[in-house]
Structures are given as C-alpha cells and as structure tokens.
Model the fold of this input.
Amino acid sequence: EPEVTQTPSHQVTQMGQEVILRCVPISNHLYFYWYRQILGQKVEFLVSFYNNEISEKSEIFDDQFSVERPDGSNFTLKIRSTKLEDSAMYFCATKGDSNQPQHFGDGTRLSIL
Amino acid sequence: KQEVTQIPAALSVPEGENLVLNCSFTDSAIYNLQWFRQDPGKGLTSLLLIQSSQREQTSGRLNASLDKSSGRSTLYIAASQPGDSATYLCAVRGSGGYQKVTFGTGTKLQVIP
Done:
C-alpha cells in the first residue's frame, strides 16, 4: 500500500536555527497537510495546501512557518528561528480528493535544544 | 470553534471483552469523522472514515457510528486483543473551507492478556 514518507525521522537543532521537514506524498495526491503533536498533548492542525497555495492555516501557523512544494513532489515545512516550544512530532498527511481520508506519515520528531 | 472530546481518557480491559470508545464534538456542521489509532512513537493509522451522511462504518472487529445531530460518535471494538492496545483518536473535519481537521484528546486503551 502506498505510504506517505517523512524525513528525517528525528531532527535535533539548536534554538534559533532553521529546520526543514520533508514529506513525500502518495503519488497523485493533491491535498497536503501538516500537523504537530507536542508530547502528551493532542494532535493540532497547522496548515492545509492545495493547488500550490495555502488553503487554510491555524493560529499556530504564524510567520515563523512556511510550506512549499519546491519540486512538485516533496512537500516541505520550514520553521525559522526555532524555539524550545517548537519541539514536537510533526506529521504530514495527504489525500487524493476531497472525499478520501487523509493518509499520515510516521512523523518527524523535532527536538530543539 | 470546534471542540472534540473523548471519554474515557484511558481504559484497561481484559482480553476478549467488547468495548466502546466515545467521541463528542461541539459543532455538528461536519463533513466527516475519522477514527485513528496511534501506537507509541508512531504516526496515525486510519481505522474508519464516516461521511456526514452516513450513520456507521464497519471494518472487521471495528464498528464506528455517527450521530451528527447530537455531536457524538462511538467506536466499538469486538473481542478485544492485546494488539489493540494503542491510543485511539477521533478527528472531525469541518464542512467549510478546505477541511480543517480537529482532533480529540484520545483514549489510551490497554488490553490485558
């Protein structure tokens, strides 16, 4: 079964640095999402992306964050000037059309030191 | 703003028992509801997706029901097994915009052999 692939599985970064989290969606999927889960807390929506633009974002997704599909395949989440509180699991999800369920990757564990 | 709550937060049952997990949501204007399982340190695995026009969905030993008007969904697990031990998440997709998904707090299930 096709999978959503996220890299790296674990990223350790110094506070203040920039990180880029990568997601390879299932082929032919058109809708893309990023979520995060702080340890012990619920999964939170960050942003949805469709037709090469952000379609919705949460209050968490401020100017520190950005998303893009630089090469038409990878879907990336960039976090600038990382803070300690950015430490979390970041999940990418994709789906083929609006009536299909979202398929999640295994996540990237981001640790900010 | 959609709020999703799951009760109980944790549940421990002996193997073989049938059990029910509950999910409630505050805004009944939903597009669909999805149940996931999350194993420790892992991503989310989709279990069942119920569209807003449906009342229930079944897959193997799992049955999920949806009562949109009362803002409730239940996940029924028949003949529980130790391999069912995981955290079960309910996620509600809104009917507007590009389908922002709101996750519940989760129910941590332990099935004792």
Q: What stands out?
A: The first strand of chain A starts at residue 5 and ends at 7. Chain A has a mean pLDDT of 91.
